[in-house]
Amino acid sequence: MSTFFQPTALVGAIAIAMGFSANVLAADAVEKANSTTLDTIVVTASRSEEKIKDVPARISVIDQKTIEQSPVADFPSLLSKEAGLAVKQVGGYGQTASVFLRGTNASHTLFLHDGMRSNIATVASTNIPLFDLSDIKQIEILKGPASVQYGTDAIGGVIQLISKTPEKSGIFTTIEAGEKNTYKSILGVDLAKDGYYAQLRGQRFETDGDQIITNNPDKAGFDQKGYAAKVGVEKDQYAFSGEIKENKGHGDYFSYGAPQAYDFINRIYNVRGRLNLSDNLIWNTRLSQFEDQYNVVKASYPSIVNTEQQEIDSNLKWGFTPHQNVMFGVQFNKTEAEKIAAYAGDEGFDSNNETVGYYLQHQFKNELFSTQAGIRVEDNQQFGTHTVGQVAARYFATPKTSIFSNIGTAFRAPVVGQIITEPSWWGGNPDLKPEESLSYEIGFDHALNDSIKIYGSVYQTKIDNLMVSDASTGWKYYNLDKATFTGSELGFKWKQDNLYANAEYAYIQPKNDETDQDAPNRPRQNFNLSLGWDNGIYGASTSLVAKGRSKDARDIPGYAAIDMNAFWQINPHVKSFLNIRNVGDTQYKTAVNDAVSDYVASGRLSTIGFTFSY
């Protein structure tokens, strides 16, 4: 990065150009803070909009305000504040990260961008540290099986990034800078009139990074830049949108103590349409493409691995009574996984797989019940036909109390990288069987009064043919007969005037039934707490993330880390914010590296930022 103070001149120039005046505070912000907020709307659980309180499953949302509070916060750090999942990241920015949702394997969580599958096919993982959030409105975390809705991979749940749609015209720029030469800038333009809209985002991020291995003081830097563009129209009878997003950059890492580096590019193309054929019949169609290119450029044995997925999804939703609807859809996916030969003796590979899924879903909603039932038949070119089903219901016992229960099956087919046996590629086993699961859950939500709400869930997921790899087989994948993931969650939310507090505790037992041992990198004890004050003009919050001990090649100790955030809406056009991540500069271990060293999480990072909007 050129100089740490580069943003200062830009801030000053923008402030002068926009008239940096504090003559009046944002009266509309006060009004907004004191008004009753609408129920959060989610789409992931049923593929269509519904109030979160009606969903007969456990779903949580990371909202737009949280995402915008710190633009430099990466995707893994936001997810780590969810008690029901564990994030294993081998270092800081740009380093490999795995998400274990309710204790299931990292490959059991499906990641979506506006409906488009974003899991990669060369390894059983997703490059979530490389996702940019500059155009994201909210992140929805659906806990529990969702293969009926989305097919393979959704055994543990679904995490979906929902992008923004402009509601009014405007322009803004956000700048955040801080320690370790960390800097992010975002420029955005929105146009909206009479249902037509256009949106453009550009972003640049750089950091010197952190030490990531206990016995190596060297830091691992990371930088990225990208853009997102969207155009569309939203009318009562029809809607259409086209979206393109590209993010690329460079990162450092270490392998067996040696410095390495990689370049990456990920792109998403999304075209979506809605046509109201009648008052009760709606047709939705989506055409998407996701590309992930990962190129190790500084290594003794360089590698270039690419994933490309093309998807068509079309469904009809028929509201045949005022309280019921049925949805029927077809989803086609073509996935190509490629390893390009990069050195002598590297043969590379190029493999394709196609799937077609047919899904049927029924929903019912009245004052007492909200139900959802569905079935999916999916034909996988490599692994045959799978049928999965799900039944879920929420009962509103009183206006303030509801209970829900669901049962569902799910499956996951091996990705190309798990079955390829090319000599320069480790772990492949062409005899792998697809995983199959059965999950149960029961939960409740209760409002003690207008200020206090509590909620809880207990669940269990049983998986047959679990795919694992370990040193005993030379890291070659094989199937375990059975594994059981059992857990419970208990949460508390309080809001009184401008004060609020949220807390959640999750107990997770990820058990290998053959060895009676916990699966690695998943702590049993998980606790999150956030306290804050927000009147719409000023706000401050403190959050605690605490994780218990977990297992790896050796035990990984538990830890607790505290973040602090504050903002000031100086006037309707200028907002300032302050963020301190890991206030105590706690150096805690996240995973084993080798016989003598461990990966460590990022230390303290203090940043300050401004948003100028017009």
CATH topology: Maltoporin, Chain A
Quaternary structure type:
single chain
Outline type: globular
Question: Percent of residues in beta strands?
Answer: over 45%
Question: Based on DSSP secondary structure assignment, what is the total number of beta strands?
Answer: 34
Count of domains: 1
Family: Belongs to the TonB-dependent receptor family.
Domain TonB-dependent receptor-like beta-barrel: 232-583
Pfam families: Plug, TonB_dep_Rec_b-barrel
Domain TonB-dependent receptor plug: 52-158
Outline the fold blueprint.
Blueprint: H1 6-18, H2 27-34, E1 41-42, E2 50-51, E3 58-62, H3 64-69, H4 75-79, E4 85-89, E5 97-101, E6 109-113, E7 116-117, E8 136-143, H5 147-150, E9 157-163, E10 170-178, E11 182-193, E12 196-213, E13 216-234, E14 238-255, E15 258-276, E16 281-298, E17 303-321, E18 324-340, E19 349-365, E20 369-380, E21 384-398, E22 401-412, H6 416-419, E23 435-447, E24 452-468, E25 478-496, E26 499-512, E27 517-518, E28 525-534, E29 538-547, E30 559-571, E31 574-581, E32 589-592, E33 598-600, E34 605-613
Parallel strand pairs: 6-9
Antiparallel strand pairs: 1-2, 3-8, 4-5, 6-7, 8-9, 10-11, 10-34, 11-12, 12-13, 13-14, 14-15, 15-16, 16-17, 17-18, 18-19, 19-20, 20-21, 21-22, 22-23, 23-24, 24-25, 25-26, 26-27, 26-28, 28-29, 29-30, 30-31, 31-34, 32-33
